Design the sequence.
């Protein structure tokens, strides 16, 4: 019986340590796109042209890169929890930039049609054949001041 309790105690201890490591890893501070140097600086029109002309080449070129883009805001949308998205639209292409955390406060004061310069990590682009739209996604966005 004494050996059984020692085994249980060791297993509980290991479980607590593993849980602590997992919680730390999930909640660790990360460096947002705003603190990173931009790999590419483009206008929204230039980015749309790049992706529209050759999607596969642009996917390779921009994959996991930090982009700094500038353009006029088409729309703003509040997301789940403490998140917001800013959209830039030209013809049948939409650029979506998602903001979370502290950056949401800066986005809430923005207005549609206003010029904006931001940084974000390129997540990819998808073409919706049903709607005939292409969406370019940037994540971990922050406003360039």
Sequence:
């Amino acid at each position: 019986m004494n050996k059984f309790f020692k085994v249980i105690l060791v297993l509980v201890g290991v479980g607590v340590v593993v849980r602590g490591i997992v919680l730390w890893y999930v909640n660790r501070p990360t460096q947002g796109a705003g603190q990173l140097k931009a790999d590419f600086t483009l206008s929204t029109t230039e980015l749309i042209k790049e992706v529209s002309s050759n999607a596969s080449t642009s996917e390779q070129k921009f994959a996991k890169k930090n982009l700094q883009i500038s353009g006029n805001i088409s729309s703003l949308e509040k997301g789940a929890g403490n998140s917001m998205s800013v959209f830039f639209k030209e013809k049948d292409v939409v650029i979506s930039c998602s903001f979370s955390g502290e950056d949401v406060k800066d986005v809430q004061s923005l207005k549609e049609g206003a010029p904006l310069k931001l940084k974000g990590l390129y997540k990819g682009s998808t073409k919706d054949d049903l709607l005939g739209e292409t969406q370019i996604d940037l994540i971990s966005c922050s406003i360039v001041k």
In short: Helices lie at 2-27, 44-53, 55-62, 103-108.
